[in-house]
TrEMBL record, chain A:
Transmembrane segments: none
This protein's pathway: Lipid metabolism; fatty acid biosynthesis
Catalytic activity: a fatty acyl-[ACP] + malonyl-[ACP] + H(+) = a 3-oxoacyl-[ACP] + holo-[ACP] + CO2; (9Z)-hexadecenoyl-[ACP] + malonyl-[ACP] + H(+) = 3-oxo-(11Z)-octadecenoyl-[ACP] + holo-[ACP] + CO2
Pfam families noted in UniProt: ketoacyl-synt, Ketoacyl-synt_C
Catalytic residues (UniProt): 178
Annotated InterPro entries: 3-oxoacyl-ACP_synth-2, Beta-ketoacyl_synthase, Ketoacyl_synth_AS, Ketoacyl_synth_C, Ketoacyl_synth_N, PKS_Beta-ketoAc_synthase_dom, Thiolase-like
Family from the record: Belongs to the thiolase-like superfamily. Beta-ketoacyl-ACP synthases family.
Protein source organism: Asticcacaulis endophyticus
GO MF term list: 3-oxoacyl-[acyl-carrier-protein] synthase activity
Ranges where the Ketosynthase family 3 (KS3) domain occurs: 2-425
Superkingdom, natural source: Bacteria
Protein's recorded name: 3-oxoacyl-[acyl-carrier-protein] synthase 2
EC number: 2.3.1.179
Automatic annotation (TrEMBL), chain B:
Keywords assigned by UniProt, alphabetized: Cytoplasm, Fatty acid biosynthesis, Fatty acid metabolism, Lipid biosynthesis, Lipid metabolism, Phosphopantetheine, Phosphoprotein
Biochemical pathway: Lipid metabolism; fatty acid biosynthesis
HAMAP family in UniProt: Acyl_carrier
Protein name as annotated: Acyl carrier protein
PTM annotation, UniProt: 4'-phosphopantetheine is transferred from CoA to a specific serine of apo-ACP by acpS. 4'-phosphopantetheine is transferred from CoA to a specific serine of apo-ACP by AcpS. This modification is essential for activity because fatty acids are bound in thioester linkage to the sulfhydryl of the prosthetic group.
Described purpose of this protein according to its UniProt entry: Carrier of the growing fatty acid chain in fatty acid biosynthesis.
Chain positions with O-(pantetheine 4'-phosphoryl)serine modification: 37
SUPFAM superfamilies xrefs: ACP-like
GO biological process, one term: lipid A biosynthetic process
Annotated localization: Cytoplasm
Family note: Belongs to the acyl carrier protein (ACP) family.
Pfam families for this protein: PP-binding
Length: 427, 79
């Protein structure tokens, strides 16, 4: 009989706060994680808003007395901190939480070799790379830090987490732009199914709210530029006033575990990873194919993998980035759900946390697991005037308590890469 | 205490997050102050910048303790 894979731990560091429960609570309350960019001076930038992580030192709307504010010094010493870009710091923080939540701290050689890590990132250490390039120009090649390369390589998130927790199983990393987090979870689940590991620490991390990151996405006309004066309104999937995505940052990490392994140790189980589908658009470097065919095929393959019917999907967490592509995806979801579309429920949590790029799919899969746990669909905030005609309930502005047994999470990335995950309740 | 020693100690404490009491003349970067080989590369770069000198790799290989660093830098500065 095929090995089943379940989620036994969740760790989140999001623009709504440091910690799974605080992020989830604020998400359900309809809070926005957006604000004016505090990371750098945005003079001359067409977009000056982002969803930054709230920190104890006052960034991103955080502060020493504000609940859920991230304190990097609680995660790494100053010495270690200098050796990692922020995306790795975020991955470590979320992985710490996920492993504690799962109560999985392998100490025997046997447990360690059966536990792997698959944490990806869309862009990796962009901030460190940009700063080092400037240093090279100013001071020459002899002044480059020996930690430059290991602090910016994408797979060093997996590497650092494995070193910190003694995880000696598969050590791998995904890089598929905004589909990274979903691919990481899907691929890690397959490693468990295939028998390469019993436990995988999987997800994504991103820290691209840096000058070149914002300037780069402005240049490809992807970012929202119309709401610089009202940051909390900027991310508004499906709304007629949407005009681009809002950059987010953070990390989402899940502990995936083989079902019998989890049961044997009495682990708490959030949900089962039922299906995973992948596809390519073969169309354009940044735009999705106009008929949404790539996304549709990823959803269909996930469904086939799960061995269920589309009518069983209670809730879909859409990719929904607050761009023109929202409508294309929604049409594909309608086609996918078929007769279920009339009573379907879809929301985009990017409305609250922005687009976490390589972390997005993992954070959203975590939200899906929590939606199953608490039987409630998180809202699409700022959806005041839908410009899409659909029978689907887009959960505008207010969370929706409902029966949720099976959910799907979509993630699509530049290059035309698509992933869909289907999670289900475990009785 | 010499001025060079004080400046070296400050760099070492800062870069290695080391307990100031442990950063003595005889302290070994690796054995006593928990540095690894890349930490030492970074330390040597910091010494070069602080004292505006160049420390070639084959000399850096022999800088194993705080005292080694101080002696090397003092020699270099008086040369």
């Amino acid at each position: 009989m095929a090995r089943r894979v379940v989620i036994t731990g969740v760790g989140l560091l999001t623009p709504l706060g440091h910690g799974t429960e605080i992020s989830w609570k604020r998400l359900l309350e309809g809070k926005s994680g957006a604000g004016p960019i505090t990371a750098f001076d945005t003079t001359d930038y067409a977009c000056t808003v982002a969803c930054e992580i709230p920190t104890v030192d006052g960034r991103g709307g955080g502060g020493p007395d504000i609940e859920g504010s991230f304190d990097a010094s609680k995660v790494l010493s100053n010495k270690e901190r200098r050796k990692v870009d922020d995306f790795i710091l975020y991955a470590i923080a979320a992985a710490d939480e996920a492993l504690s939540d799962a109560n999985w701290h392998p100490e025997s050689e046997e447990d360690q070799v059966r536990t792997g890590v698959m944490i990806g990132s869309g862009i990796g250490g962009l901030g460190v790379i940009a700063a080092t390039a400037l240093e090279l120009k100013e001071k020459g090649p002899k002044r480059i830090s020996p930690f430059f390369i290991p602090s910016s390589l994408i797979n060093l998130a997996s590497g650092q987490v494995s070193i910190r927790h003694g995880l000696k199983g598969p050590n791998h990393s995904v890089v598929t732009a905004c589909a990274t987090g979903a691919h990481a979870i899907g691929d890690a689940a397959r490693l468990i199914k295939y028998g390469d590991a019993d436990v995988m620490v999987a997800g994504g991390a991103e820290s691209a709210i840096v000058p070149v990151g914002i300037a780069g996405f402005i240049a490809c006309r992807a970012l929202c530029t119309a709401f610089n004066d009202a940051p909390e309104k900027a991310s508004r999937p499906y709304d007629k006033d949407r005009d681009g995505f809002v950059m987010g940052e953070g990390a989402g990490i899940l502990v995936l575990e083989e079902y019998e392994h989890a049961k044997a140790r009495g682990a708490k189980i959030y949900a089962e990873v039922l299906g995973y589908g992948l596809s390519g658009d073969a169309y354009h470097i940044t735009a999705p194919s106009e008929d949404g065919d790539g996304g549709f095929r990823a959803m269909s393959l996930a469904l086939k993998d799960a061995g269920i019917s589309a009518t069983e999907i209670d809730y879909v967490n859409s990719h929904g980035t607050s761009t023109m592509a929202d409508g294309i995806e929604l049409k594909a979801i309608e086609k996918f759900l078929g007769e279920r579309a009339a009573t379907g429920t879809v929301s985009s949590t990017k409305s609250a946390i922005g687009h976490l790029l390589g972390a997005a799919g993992a954070v959203e899969a975590a939200f899906c697991a929590l939606a199953i746990r608490d039987q409630i669909a998180p809202p699409t905030i700022n959806l005041d005037n839908p410009d899409v005609e659909t029978p689907i309930d887009l959960v505008p502005n207010k969370a929706k308590p409902m029966k949720i047994d099976k959910v799907m999470s979509n993630s699509f990335g530049f290059g035309g890469t698509n992933a869909a995950l289907i999670l289900g309740k475990v009785d | 205490m010499s001025e060079v020693l004080e400046r070296v100690r400050k760099i070492v404490i800062d870069h290695l997050d080391a307990d100031p009491d442990k950063v003595t003349d005889k302290a070994s970067f690796i054995d006593d102050l928990e540095a690894d080989s890349l930490d030492i590369v970074e330390l040597v770069m910091a010494f070069e910048e602080e004292f505006d000198i160049e420390i070639p790799d084959d000399s850096a290989e022999h800088i194993l303790t705080v005292g080694d660093a101080v002696n090397y830098i003092q020699e270099k500065l008086s040369a």
